[in-house]
Amino acid sequence: MKKIALAGAVVGLGLLVACQPAAQKAEAQKPKKKLSKYEKFKIAFYQNQDKWQKYCSNEAQLVPQGISIEEFKKAMLATIKFPPGGKVMGDWKRGEKLFGDPKKGGRSRRGNCYACHCGDPQIIACGNIGPSLRGYGKRGIDPKQTYMRIYNSWAFNPCSAMPRLGYWGVLKPEEIADIVAFLHSPESPINR
Amino acid sequence: MGKRALLALGLFAGGAVVGTLAVAKEKLPEHLRELLELGMHPGHVFVDEGRDYYHNLKGPNGKTCATCHGQDGAKLEGAYAKMPRYYKDIDKVADIDLRILSCMTKYMGFDPKDKKFRKEYDKKLRVPLATYVASLSNGMKINVEIKHPKEKEMYELGKKIWFTRAGAREFSCAMCHTVLAGKRIRLQGLPNPVKAKSYNHWPAYRFGSDRMWTMEDRVTSCFKAYFLFTKRWDEKKDWVKKPPLYSKEVIAVELYMKHASNGGIIEVPGLLR
Predict the structure, then answer these.
(1) What pTM value is reported for the model?
(2) I want to staple A44 with a disulfide (CB 3.0 to 4.6 A). Which of A7, B62, B235, B240 is the partner?
(3) Can you list the domains of chain B with their CATH numbers?
(4) A117 touches chain B (CB under 8 A)
(5) Does the pLDDT value for residue B22 go beyond 60?
(6) Hey, of B170, B171, B180, B232, which one would you mutate to test binding to chain A, going by the most A CBs within 10 A of its CB?
(7) Which residues of A touch B180 (CB under 8 A)?
(8) Residue contact B165–A57, C-beta within 8 A
């Protein structure tokens, strides 16, 4: 009611332009037109490509162009968020599921580490794109370092084939901590 | 459908398919190669189905493909070797899937806005018709030319897309098919379709899934790996799995790949693991 009165007053003053915000608000309340499949694809493929991916979209693929490696890494490092209390090691059994083997309850495609890495020696359906992670916990690597790598691999290796799973929110900080536990825990099949 | 499924089932029971990593035809497992030698290629069912539509499927105006393109596709021999290319009548660069659709809507009286027709074309008629028309170029060399300004534009777009890293998995065609070619993603070997000129065996019958695919199906399916999203990737709510069929982007990347396959001898339908 108030709005109409106000709009009326504004029109009265002849300042039609001032009506625009009110008009926009009315528009926002209308149900939005559903995006077509093609419009969705274009948003996803073009609009949502971030500037870091643009630096990597060249013929070399694995080396950023138009920015120094140091600057790139620094910016990526700054995106890393830790779980509450900074606890980078969670529950290795949950981590095992997220690591992504269907036989081990890993129905989700989110982690999908086995697509690129071998780990548990019992799982032979594993890719060789990344290095094998068998015995990873025995290598004396700081678990915090592992956490950061999984959260944003590009902070260590710009344009790597390894996706920035925490950065994009594909994995939550707590879930990454579970995976870190799976990689580091002495009871985990990775290290047995 | 039944015939195909039965054949595939028989082969699976033979234990030939499971666990093999072969991609290219030369690397096909023994059983599949023998089958080929016996002339029992499951993809041939689609060629026959396509030939049947070509001669007998009438548009609302009574025309069939044969009305314009001749009995047994006489005037379409060699056409597939030069596609995708620019067509003046539709003022577009079209691949085989889009070219046939355009003929049906422009020349046979089908309504492009009719959802039922579109569904029937996309799901039922497209693949057999494309496979049949492609088979009319068997034994010929791929010879795609980049001459018309629209072809140049599409080629450049295709090349750009090949190298574009996007989505929550930061993938690009080049990542899997150039940089990582020869490696294994889980158990699947990654081919290099640009270097290997593998466009020559598309459309192809894929044993694992008992499906005949055109290159549009192959490319759109590869996009699933990217984890594309509109707001924030979510497996259930916000996963833009594929570009729709006939998207400019799909045809552009086809043009890029097929041009790279120039000189390759067409041999379709292909037979893949």
Answers:
(1) 0.89
(2) B240
(3) 2-37 (no CATH), 42-135 (1.10.760.10), 149-272 (1.10.760.10)
(4) no
(5) no
(6) B170
(7) 129, 161
(8) yes
